[in-house]
Amino acid sequence: MNLVDSFKTALGIRLKSLRERFGDGKLSQADLAKLLPNVSRANLGRVEIGEVMPSAIFIKDVAEFFNISADWLLTGKEYEISQTFLDPDLQRLIDAYNLLDKENRQALKAYTALLVSHRHLDILEETLKQTRSLDRAPELDVIKEEKSVYLPILGTAAAGMPIMADEFLEGFLPVPAKKIKKNTYIVRAQGESMIDAGIQNGDLVMIIPQPAVEQGEIALVKVDGDVTIKKFYWYDHEVRLRPANKTMEDIVVTDLAKVKVLGKVAGIIPAAEANITMQYEFNGEEDQ
């Protein structure tokens, strides 16, 4: 066996060892190939048996997935980043995340962002209480109250005919903490049915989750699986979703079981303003 063949064989052994030790040891070649964006099942199998030399993209994908050094995978001379130092619960979370598809990973990131945002609100509220109890200068309170919390932009809702909300985490937007309540999230409006209420196509709309709203309030509503933003009116035998656009008619729903209020519109952020401050990755920090 020449040097190149020896290199490919050793690399394949390390790769197979990683795969077989991952999680509960039940990660097949087919399962792993589905989780790696640029790796096919056939190519993965050929690399494991030392038949082919993996590409740089292959090495990068494998190293990132298993959280190891590319040097270790190629040469075996650098220590693998040990997972034994991680808390067992944290390791299980990492393993579960690695098994999720792209859509569910985005959903998990959105949920995590909500949890962190709520924690920031708790800390901010406690800090403000302590600051006021010490009777400090008023300007200190103002500084505290200008803190921001990052809210996830969870998808698109129609300001027109109901559409299916996008299963997509678009990004995160810093919003002054004093303007929001816990569990608040953001959707992007699409359409022109609410322009007379100040909601333009592409604007970001803050939503406070709640199962009901007052008559005539603007709400995020699910209608038979689709989502829309409208003024909400309910009657004995029907619900009317009224646009804020005189050129459009009410959406009338007589099957009340198909209607669900998701939340109340709490604020509007113009698209041009949001595009300046929006972040595509969540860093878990408040604005200073």
Notes on the structure:
The protein has two domains: 3-81, 434 Repressor (Amino-terminal Domain) (Orthogonal Bundle), CATH 1.10.260.40; 103-277, Umud Fragment, subunit A (Ribbon). The chain has nine helices and nine strands. The protein has helices at residues 3-21, 29-35, 41-48, 56-66, 70-75, 88-99, 102-133, 138-145, 271-277; strands at residues 148-158, 171-176, 185-190, 204-209, 218-223, 226-234, 239-242, 251-253, 259-269. It has a nine-stranded mixed sheet, with helices on one face. Helix 7 (102-133) runs antiparallel to helix 8. The longest helix is centred in the middle third of the chain and has 32 residues, at 102-133. The termini are far apart.
Question: Keyphrases for this structure?
Answer:
alpha+beta; single chain; 288 residues; Umud Fragment, subunit A; 22% strand; 9-stranded mixed beta sheet; disordered C terminus
Concise description?
With 288 residues, the chain is of the alpha+beta class. The chain has helices spanning 3-21, 29-35, 41-48, 56-66, 70-75, 88-99, 102-133, 138-145, 271-277, and strands at 148-158, 171-176, 185-190, 204-209, 218-223, 226-234, 239-242, 251-253, 259-269. The chain has 2 domains: 3-81, lambda repressor-like DNA-binding domains (434 Repressor (Amino-terminal Domain), Orthogonal Bundle); 103-277, Umud Fragment, subunit A (Ribbon), CATH 2.10.109.
Uncertain stretches: 79-85, 134-146, 160-167, 282-288
| Silhouette | elongated
Compute the separation of the termini in Å: 61 Å
Rg of Cα set: 25 Å
Strand portion: 15-25%
Read across the widest sheet, the strand sequence of neighbours is 2-1-3-4-9-5-6-7-8
Task: Give the H and E element order.
Answer: HHHHHHHHEEEEEEEEEH
Largest sheet: 9 strands, mixed
Number of strands: 9
Task: Kindly identify the CATH topology of the largest domain.
Answer: Umud Fragment, subunit A
